[in-house]
Design brief:
With 335 residues, the protein is α/β, with parallel strands linked by helices. The protein is 25% helix and 26% strand. It is built from nine helices and 15 strands. The strands form three sheets. Strands 3, 4, 5, 6, 7, 14 and 15 form a seven-stranded mixed sheet that branches. α6 links the parallel β11 and β12. α2 crosses α3 and α2 crosses α8. Bound molecules: NADP nicotinamide-adenine-dinucleotide phosphate (NAP).
C-alpha cells in the first residue's frame, strides 16, 4: 500500500494570468482506507478552464478552492484498495478526485462512477469527448442551441475539448459547422481531421471578413466558449431567432478588466435567445449523453485529439498553457 501522496495545492490566489508559484507540489502521508472508503490511484487528470474561476475568492456557481487545499479536477483512476462493497481492487473509476496521484474517498461519494471499458473508447476519453466536456457540448448544443438540419452553427475554441465535439455534433445533425480557433495549424485540424466546413483564425487581421465569408447565410447557433470582442463580431452576423448557448468565456477568466460586450442591440433586434448554462444543471442528461457519445467515439463518428503532459508536477505549467491556447484537443496530465 502506498504511504505517500503527491498533490498540487492552491498556494496563492492569482491576479490576472496564473503563475506556476500560485501552486505548490507537496508529498503528504497517505492513510489506509477506513470502513466505507476506497483508495484510488489516479491515472489521468483533466485540466479545464473552469479551474481558473475556482482559484478566485468570488461568488460563483461553485465554491472556490481554499488556500492550501488540493486543486479540484476530474480524474480517471484505478481502485487499489477498497473497504466499500460497491468497489473492488482493479475497478476503473472516474470522479472529481483532484490534482493528486492518490485519493482516499468515501465509496458512496456522489459523482464517483465505475467505468465499464469498451472497445474503441480509451479511458482518457472519459475526461474528454465522452466525459464532462463532451456532455457539455451535447447538452448545450442540443438542449439550448436546438440546431436544425441546414442551419449554420459557429463555435469558438473549436480545436479544444468542448468545441471539437460541438462542431462534430452539428455535422451529425446536418448543419453547417464553422469553427473559430487560434492559428492556422488549429484551423487546418478543425477542417481536415474534425470535418467542420470551415474554420477561421481569431488571431487573423482579416477575422471579420473571414467570418463573413464562412457564414454566407448568417449564424443560427453560436456556441459561446470565448467571449470578449469575438462575441461582438458574431453578433454582427447573427440571424433572427438565433440561439446562443453561453457555455464559457475563456478569454475573460484571467482579465483584470473584463471586456464589456457592445453589440447588445443585436440580441434585441434579432430576437436572439442567449442562455448561460453549467453542465451539472442537467445531471439527468448525463447517462444518455455519455452513452451516445461513447457510441459515436467507438464508431469514429466523433474523433478527438489530446495534449498530454507527463507527471503531476507538470500540471501547473500545462494548465497555464491550456488557458493560453497551447493545447490541441483535450488537455490532460498522465499521472
Ligand atoms: N458551462 C459548462 O458547464 C462548461 C463545461 C466545460 C467547459 N466550459 C467552457 O467551455 C470553454 C472551452 O473549454 P474546454 O475545456 O473545451 O477548453 P479548451 O477549448 O480545450 O481549451 C481552452 C481554449 O480556449 C481558447 N482561448 C483561450 N484564450 C482565448 C482567447 N482570448 N480568444 C479565443 N480563444 C481563446 C484556446 O484555444 P485557441 O488556441 O483556439 O485560442 C484554448 O485552447 C471554456 O470557456 C470553458 O470554461 C463550460
Amino acid at each position: 500500500m502506498p504511504t505517500t501522496n503527491k498533490q498540487v495545492l492552491l498556494a496563492r490566489r492569482p491576479y490576472g494570468e496564473p503563475k506556476e508559484d500560485d501552486f505548490s507540489v507537496v508529498d503528504t502521508a497517505l492513510d489506509d482506507p477506513r470502513e466505507g472508503q476506497i483508495l484510488v490511484r489516479n491515472r489521468f487528470l483533466s485540466l479545464d478552464p473552469y479551474m481558473r474561476g475556482r482559484m478566485n475568492d468570488a461568488k460563483s456557481y461553485a465554491a472556490p478552492v481554499a488556500l492550501g487545499d488540493v486543486m479540484v479536477g476530474g480524474t480517471v483512476g484505478e481502485v487499489v484498495a477498497s473497504k466499500h462493497p460497491r468497489f473492488r481492487q482493479g475497478d476503473v473509476v472516474t470522479g472529481a478526485l483532484g490534482w493528486q496521484e492518490h485519493a482516499l474517498v468515501e465509496g458512496a461519494s456522489a459523482g464517483l462512477v465505475k467505468i465499464k471499458e469498451r472497445p474503441g473508447v480509451p479511458l482518457s476519453a472519459y475526461l474528454g469527448a465522452v466525459g464532462m466536456p463532451g456532455v457539455t457540448a451535447y447538452h448545450g448544443l442540443f438542449d439550448i442551441g436546438t440546431p436544425k438540419p441546414g442551419e449554420t452553427v459557429v463555435v469558438g475554441a473549436a480545436a479544444g475539448a468542448v468545441g471539437s465535439v460541438v462542431g462534430q455534433l452539428a455535422k451529425l445533425t446536418g448543419c453547417r459547422a464553422i469553427g473559430i480557433a487560434g492559428g492556422a495549424e488549429k484551423c487546418a485540424h478543425v477542417v481536415k481531421d474534425l470535418g467542420f466546413d470551415a474554420c477561421v483564425d481569431h488571431r487573423s487581421a482579416t477575422l471579420k471578413d473571414d467570418l463573413a465569408a464562412a457564414t454566407p447565410a448568417g449564424i443560427d447557433v453560436y456556441f459561446e466558449n470565448v467571449g470578449g470582442p469575438l462575441l461582438d463580431l458574431v453578433l454582427g452576423r447573427i440571424n433572427p431567432f438565433a440561439r446562443i448557448p453561453l457555455c464559457g468565456l475563456v478569454s475573460q477568466y484571467s482579465e483584470t478588466q473584463p471586456y464589456g460586450v457592445k453589440n447588445v442591440v443585436s440580441l434585441l433586434t434579432n430576437r436572439v435567445r442567449l442562455q448561460g448554462f453549467v453542465v451539472s444543471d442537467r445531471m439527468d442528461r448525463w447517462p444518455e449523453a455519455q452513452q451516445r457519445l461513447a457510441g459515436w467515439v467507438a464508431e469514429k463518428k466523433i474523433v478527438f485529439r489530446e495534449t498530454v503532459a507527463e507527471g503531476l508536477a507538470s500540471a501547473p505549467r500545462a494548465f497555464i498553457g491550456m488557458l493560453r491556447g497551447e493545447n490541441l484537443g483535450k488537455q490532460l496530465v498522465r499521472l
